[in-house]
Amino acid sequence: MLTRRQSLTTLAAGAGAIALLPFPALAKYEVTLTEAQWRKKLSPPAFAVLRKQDTERPFSSPLDKEKRSGVFACAGCALPLFTSKTKFDSGTGWPSFYAPLRNAVALDTDRLLGFERTEVHCRRCGGHLGHVFDDGPKPTGKRYCMNGVAMTFTPRNFA
């Protein structure tokens, strides 16, 4: 039989271990590189966004105006993230989508600006993609506001 102190200590240790699980910096990803390897692989703007949670200037990405049918993938690991079928013009200056592909992204809480936002990152490499907001169109009501420099585009027909 555990004493009250032993029970509380065990409970606190377990809660502490569980509290560490959702942080992306501690998560294990399928694609992991050193900072030097990421810097070599990515352009400086892509590295700043994907690995350092920077944001590209609005209206600076050609992907914001991309109208062709195709797939938007992670610039870090090439995982398909979104299709042109869910892309819409949000007028914000960043490529926007109302839904990601299944099992493509993961969400975390971002407090970098002093308030909570929902960060979107690649579930395979952990790269920062942008944020999701609740002001998008039907059918989801979501606006996945992505940094174009964090993605690549491959034209594809969905006939």
Defining traits:
single chain; 159 residues; alpha+beta; Metal Binding Protein, Guanine Nucleotide Exchange Factor, Chain A; 6-stranded antiparallel sheet; 3-stranded antiparallel sheet; 3 helices
Break the fold down into its secondary structure elements and pairings.
Elements: H1 4-19, H2 35-41, H3 44-52, E1 70-74, E2 80-83, E3 87-88, E4 96-97, E5 105-110, E6 117-122, E7 128-133, E8 143-146, E9 151-155
Antiparallel strand pairs: 1-2, 1-9, 3-4, 4-8, 5-6, 6-7, 7-8
Q: Can you give me a brief rundown of this structure?
A:
The protein has 3 helices and 9 strands. The chain is an alpha+beta fold and 159 residues long.
